[in-house]
Specification:
single chain, about 950 residues, alpha/beta, Aspartate Aminotransferase, domain 2, Aspartate Aminotransferase, domain 1, 7-stranded mixed beta sheet, 24 strands, about 40% helix, binds pyridoxal-5'-phosphate, Glycine dehydrogenase (decarboxylating), glycine binding
């Protein structure tokens, strides 16, 4: 008999997810440890992480599950959700995600693993899709410009309110909200208004608008109960009082209705969810935001704009970036950073695929079915609204409870809006048979009506709920892009054409410091599109979402254990939104103990721009504290400022490990110092990848943190969103977490204002983090952190042979990222950090984070998922680029004609007949063997930002612009 050497557990190794998640294998790990001169990973961690914050105990979590077992487990929870037919409405509709988009965009890592398009030369694909999105929004809303998505409709409305205040000189603090705005939107508006000191007046615009004296007005079109009010006269009334008007609108209704722009609105916003994005129990979906030309410098969020590259060829990039928090900080128009790019892309592809005719047919069909239902009900004496697009509010002779229950028994969710009123909202998925079923449910079975007869009456001229003067007359989506790709073959190729222009994790490392671009494992992504998670309305009855609640509470438990906090809120749907929610909890808590006057927020100068932007939204007084020359918070300065403001100190916002990528030794003392001066500690948890399993913010001494699940916890970046930014808090802050008026969060006062449109934010991407935590388990989570630190330190040592490393912590170690300083090189050679970033594209890499948190530097984060081989490939590219800089410095290449300042290079460059450069074509595009074997081609030359801002265009350019080139 043959000798057996391996045990069963050895043989089971292949099922272990941790070794798939982590890039380096045992051999590579050993090689890196030896290089660093340490014997074990534990030794490296002891050298790197301060004793005062290092955990002794393992996480109290289960061991890892295999991919297969974790999926079976999650399946068992998904099966406890019930997918009913949804007629609830309120801004969420069922939709048919075109399968070609589902598989090739939503489920495609080339789309979902890309980063925000800060490097536009390798992002022209998603920039085009986002520009299409803006065009759709501009056409439907009738406005001059649109941004490329907001987090959700409710927060978009809150942003519209602050935009109105900023842009309106009128002396008023009143914001008027129509009482037929969706209730969750009113909830979020009220939360946001409180600290700006605005008074929110909710009323009937027909009667209460007259002398409301508001600076701004929010309307809904059609209203939450279905009516299409005459917003033209309402807008005129508001304008007579010098109030600005924001209109929340339904994009499918806008296909048939006159645009709010034509009717005089200043801002139009809404959700593009029903354009082919699943409801997902609340998200993620893209909200839209459109405004008139005069407001262009004040619009929140990111706008994609048209510019040109160095060859004069049209090229896209994010416009007017100086408005962003990174630069404007507390003066930024909003704190929104991560938004909903992937979902905006899906919605825009939905419009490209259907085209204007297709959209019109969908809208007409939904409306026809609504009219059939309305006329049938009216014929039987049930009152419904006179005007409608897709939503009816039924007034029943007696209680609505029976009908509501009959509907449930038939597998249908209706909306009960009053004791005798029911709402029914139809959508793209509604079939004629569903109308027959609804008539049965409401009228009982022998009503004698037929859908065909009712339809015939409409064709013969019966009433249909949209007044002739409210019908749209202008054309939409006339651009060629929306009239070219209506077969699946054409659509598939169009999307592939765009995909091919974009660099994502499927191509190579995206070493963006502070952004943690790690593996987004397929097993983590699979559950997102299970119908039991994706086809659920956010306000579905509780007994239909038991599986969701079990998944969410297990996730909360995991995050409580990982962070060392007492309670977690899953509502905020971005990191910045988490910051806002955390500061809100702090201020509410301070009010509850009679210290509501505390409004000073200390923020170290190294902080991410969202920190001051969020504090500004809470009307806090921001005091910036200094950093020392090692990149640490200057404790003496912090102490002085904390003491100086001790009577008004609300909190400190501090990132840990610091945005400089080091573990500050003094963090425990810093937390103490703030508490002693009456303040709370907000720890920005975006860098949790350097803490999970080896330290905990709650144990270090902070009171609240947000976690960027789209960084540390494996939710993909989506090319600029979605994300999730849940917050963890200590018990004293727990009673002040965000709840929700429509669907209160268990254990919280429903009057705690909401910070997002739905109670669990973008709930349908939470299974990603759930899977991540379960498949890694306590040891895999810890090992991931250890390996992130090992990779970063190995990379730092290798890079240090070629570039100065700006900051290091104890024992010369860094945390999970490092900053290389390009300033000395720039001084000596004229080569800039941007030249290096663009040259990296020629080498097949996405650039690191540029000039944050220190101008003139590159911040590089490899994460645990990159192998030693990939890190080596990156280091070699950086080393070779250093050699190229040398040639510029020595004068071998002129300062204005070298592969660095002319990077990136395109195929057109090297095919051009006149090659006027002192370096070869080969040096330009195949600088090393790796690129010869596997080349990623940038599709644009360097893009001119200034030109684009001076000639601001955010709509699809006319087709001739492309033909000229
Ligand atoms: C990414 C990041 C944020 C903001 O997160 P978003 O999800 O983009 O809003 C805040 N702070 C730090 C340090 C970050 O890296």
């Amino acid at each position: 008999m043959a000798t057996v050497t391996r045990t069963l557990s050895d043989l089971e190794q292949t099922t272990d997810f941790t070794r798939r998640h982590i890039g380096p294998d045992a051999e590579q790990t050993q090689a890196m440890l030896s290089d660093l001169g340490v014997n074990s990973i534990e030794e490296l961690i002891t050298q790197t992480v301060p004793d005062s914050i290092r955990l002794d105990d393992a996480l109290a979590m289960d061991d890892s599950l295999t991919e297969a077992d974790a999926l079976v487990y999650l399946r068992s929870l998904a099966d406890q959700n019930k997918v009913n037919k949804t007629y609830i409405g309120m801004g969420y509709s069922n939709t048919l995600v075109p399968n070609v988009i589902l598989r090739n965009v939503m489920e495609n890592p080339a789309w979902y693993t890309a980063y925000t398009p800060y490097q536009p030369e390798i992002a022209q694909g998603r920039l085009e899709a986002l520009l299409n999105y803006q065009q759709v929004v501009m056409d439907l809303t009738g406005m001059d410009l649109a941004n490329a998505s907001m987090l959700d409709e409710a927060t978009a409305a809150a942003e519209a309110m602050t935009l109105c205040k900023r842009s309106n000189r009128k002396k008023s603090d009143i914001f008027f909200v129509a009482d037929d705005v969706h209730p969750q939107t009113i909830d979020v508006i009220k939360t946001r208004a409180e600290y700006f000191g605005f008074e929110v007046v909710v009323g009937n615009p027909l009667t209460d608008l007259d002398n409301c004296d508001a600076f701004g007005v929010q309307l809904q079109y059609p209203g939450t109960y279905g009516d299409i009010s005459d917003i033209k006269s309402l807008i005129e009334k508001a304008k007579d009082q010098k109030a600005m008007v924001a209109v929340a609108a339904d994009p499918l209704a806008l296909v048939l209705l006159k645009s709010p722009g034509e009717l005089g609105a200043d801002v139009v916003l809404g959700s593009s969810q029903r354009f082919g994005v699943p409801m997902g129990f609340g998200g993620p979906h893209a909200a839209f935001f459109a405004a008139s030309e005069k407001l262009k410098r004040s619009v929140p969020g990111r706008i994609i704009g048209v510019s040109i590259d160095t060859n004069g060829k049209p090229a896209l990039r994010m416009a007017m970036q100086t408005r962003e928090q990174h630069i404007r900080r507390e003066k930024a128009t909003s704190n929104i950073c991560t938004s909903q790019a992937l979902l905006a892309n899906m919605a825009s592809f939905y419009c490209v695929y259907h085209g204007p005719q297709g959209l019109k047919t969908i809208a007409e069909r939904v409306h026809r079915l609504t009219a059939i239902l309305a006329n049938g009900l009216k014929a039987k004496g049930i009152a419904v609204n006179d005007t409608y697009f897709d939503t009816l509010t039924l007034t029943l002779p007696e209680t609505a409870a029976d009908v509501y229950q009959r509907a449930l028994d038939a597998g249908c969710n209706l909306r009960q809006t009053a004791a005798n009123k029911l709402g029914i909202t139809l959508d793209e998925t509604t079939r004629p048979a569903d109308i027959a079923q609804l008539l049965d449910v409401v009228l009982g079975e022998d009503h004698g009506l037929s859908v065909a007869d009712l339809d015939a009456e409409i064709v013969a001229g019966a009433d249909t709920g949209i007044a002739a003067e409210m019908r749209r007359e202008d054309a939409i989506l006339t651009h060629a892009t929306f009239n070219s790709y209506h077969s699946e073959t054409d659509m598939l190729r169009y999307m592939k054409k765009l995909e091919n222009k974009d660099y994502s994790l499927v191509h190579g490392m995206i070493p963006l410091g502070s952004c943690t671009m790690k593996l987004n494992a397929t097993a983590e992504m699979i559950p997102v599109t299970w119908p039991e998670f994706s086809s659920i309305h956010p306000f579905a009855p509780a007994d239909q979402v038991q599986g969701y609640h079990k998944m969410l509470s297990l996730l909360e438990e995991q995050l409580v254990e990982i962070t060392g906090y007492d309670k977690v809120s899953l509502q905020p749907n971005s990191g910045a939104s988490g910051e806002y929610a955390g500061l809100l909890a702090i201020r509410k808590y301070q009010e509850s103990i009679g210290e509501g006057h505390r409004n000073v927020c200390l923020i170290p100068s190294s902080a991410h721009g969202t920190n001051p932007a969020s504090a500004a939204m809470m009307d806090m007084k921001i005091i910036v504290t200094a950093c020392d020359d090692k990149g640490n918070v200057d404790v003496a300065d912090l102490r002085a400022k904390a003491e100086q403001h001790k009577d008004d100190l609300s909190c400190l916002m501090i990132t840990y490990p610091s945005t400089h990528g080091v573990y500050e030794e003094d963090i425990v003392e810093i937390c103490d110092l703030i508490h002693k001066n009456g303040g709370q500690v907000y720890m920005d948890g975006a860098n949790m990848n350097a803490q999970v399993g080896i330290s905990k913010p709650g144990v270090i001494g902070s009171d609240v943190s947000h976690l960027n699940l789209h960084k540390t916890f494996a939710i993909p970046h989506g090319g600029g969103g979605p994300g999730m930014g849940p917050i963890g808090v200590k018990s004293h802050l727990a009673p002040f977490l965000a709840s929700h008026k429509v669907s209160p969060v268990e254990g919280l006062n429903p009057d705690n204002g909401a910070v997002a449109a739905t109670p669990y934010g973008s709930a349908s991407i939470l299974p990603i983090t759930w899977m991540y935590n379960l498949m890694l388990g306590k040891s895999g989570l810890k090992k991931s952190t250890q390996m992130a630190i090992l990779n970063a330190n190995y990379m730092t040592e290798k890079l240090a042979e070629h570039y100065p490393v700006l900051y290091r912590g104890r024992n010369n170690k860094v945390a999970h990222e490092c900053i290389v300083d390009i300033r000395p090189l720039k001084e000596a050679s004229g080569v800039t950090e941007e030249d290096i970033a663009k040259r990296l594209m020629d080498y097949g890499f996405h650039a690191p984070t540029m000039s944050f948190p220190v101008a003139g530097t590159l911040m590089i984060e490899p994460t645990e998922s990159e192998s030693k081989a990939e890190i080596d490939r990156f280091v070699e590219a950086m080393a070779q680029i250093r050699q190229e800089v040398e040639k510029v410095q020595s004068g071998q290449w002129p300062a204005d004609n070298n592969p660095l300042c002319r990077a990136p290079h395109t195929q057109a460059d090297i095919m051009s007949a006149n090659w006027d450069r002192p370096y070869s074509r080969e040096e330009a595009v195949f600088p090393n063997t790796a690129t010869r074997e596997n080349k990623f081609w940038p599709t644009s030359n360097r893009i001119d930002n200034v030109y684009g801002d001076r000639n601001f265009i955010c709509s699809c350019p006319a087709i001739e612009t492309y033909m000229d080139n």
